[in-house]
Design goal:
Layout lengths: L15 E5 L5 E5 L3 E2 L1 E2 L5 H14 L12 H11 L1 H4 L5 H18 L7 E2 L33 H5 L21 E5 L2 E6 L21 H8 L4 H20 L13 H19 L1 H4 L23 E2 L8 E2 L13 E2 L1
Helix pairs in contact: 1-4, 4-8, 6-7, 7-8
């Protein structure tokens, strides 16, 4: 089974003000930020509006010239840029903006509620029975297949997929079909395969995303060390534990991806806000996977690619989420 490593240790605001920025530049800051919330605090009507907006994306045409949908664009872009946006310094700012782009498209599909995250620390006692998987209150549960003995084969995502999937059959995304496995066109049902790496579902690797683990990561003093531990421990463990579509680089196939990454962004924001005078623009690490981790070669003026989905932007444009470009808080 492939695991992401772990070692344990937008919407525009309604009004804006101009604030100073490093180097004498100025950047608009929002004065009425939206507030992101835990998904399970949304009322039933707002949850339905959210999931209806996700389905709406599956009815819109591709923006990047594919023969698939706008929903699939998010998967294809993420997977195409896989080595540029994972295990490198850009991981946090790139995904911050990526989720913001997703929020913008949800709003274009009629969603009026707050952007939501999934706080998986609330579920570490037994992640497989979390209410986030509830068919009514959550996003539907584990996938099912007539041949349960194939769960291990489904989990071996580095081998060629052979059409064995565990399809989500309840909740708001029952019947959702997606188009890509990595960047290969391979239509299939939304696939989940809860696991611990040994058992199905087992403890779903919950030891890697407890409040205690997060407290240790939050105490790390520098951006690069913080990013490596957040990405390699809780972030990677949650992807691996859900399995199925959440395991390969085509993980945006699963709508839970975005709730997961808003949570990752929330944790980065929390770390930044502990020392905002220095951490708002603190950025370090390797630019590419071609050099070892702990190499410091990046700049906040580096350009982040988005594969034609939207204009490429500088890292510095999203180091703060309290500007007009993103305009939200937690």
């Amino acid at each position: 089974m492939r695991f992401v490593q772990f070692s344990l240790l937008p919407s525009l605001c309604l009004a804006a003000a101009v604030l100073p920025r490093e180097g004498g530049e100025e950047k608009e800051a929002c004065t009425t930020p939206s507030k992101r919330v835990e998904y399970r605090t949304l009322d039933a009507a707002t949850q339905k509006e959210y999931t209806d907006a996700v389905w709406c994306l599956t009815k819109k045409p591709s923006r990047i010239g594919l023969n698939t949908t706008l929903y699939d664009d998010f998967t294809f872009v993420h997977s195409s840029l896989n080595s540029d946006i994972h295990f490198v310094a850009q991981f946090l700012p790139w995904h911050r903006y990526f989720v913001g782009l997703y929020e913008t498209e949800l709003r274009a599909c009629g969603y009026t509620g707050p952007m939501a995250y999934w706080d998986w620390t609330l579920d570490v006692a037994d992640p497989a029975t979390s209410s986030i998987w509830d068919p009514v209150l959550g996003l539907g549960g584990n996938g099912v297949n007539a041949n349960e003995t194939d769960r291990l084969r489904d989990a071996l995502i580095d081998s060629v997929k052979d059409g064995v999937y565990f399809c989500v059959s309840d909740g708001p995304f029952a019947g959702l079909n997606v188009s890509y496995f990595r960047t290969k066109y391979q239509p299939h049902c939304l696939d989940r395969n809860f696991n611990s790496g040994v058992d199905f579902p087992g403890d779903m690797l919950s030891f890697a995303y407890t409040p205690e683990v997060l407290a240790k990561i939050n105490k790390l003093p520098g951006y690069d060390e913080f990013r490596q531990n957040l990405e390699g421990n809780p972030h990677g463990a949650v992807h691996s534990a859900i399995g199925g579509d959440m395991s390969p680089s085509s993980s945006p196939n699963d709508p839970i991806f975005f709730l997961h990454h808003v949570q990752i962004d929330r944790l980065w924001s929390k770390w930044q806000q502990e020392k905002p005078e220095t951490r708002t623009n603190e950025y370090a690490g390797r630019r590419t996977q071609a050099v070892p981790e702990n190499t410091d070669e990046v700049s906040i003026d580096d350009i982040m690619p988005f594969f034609g989905f939207t204009e490429d932007i500088k890292v510095s444009d999203v180091m703060s989420h309290k500007t007009a470009l993103l305009c939200y808080e937690y």
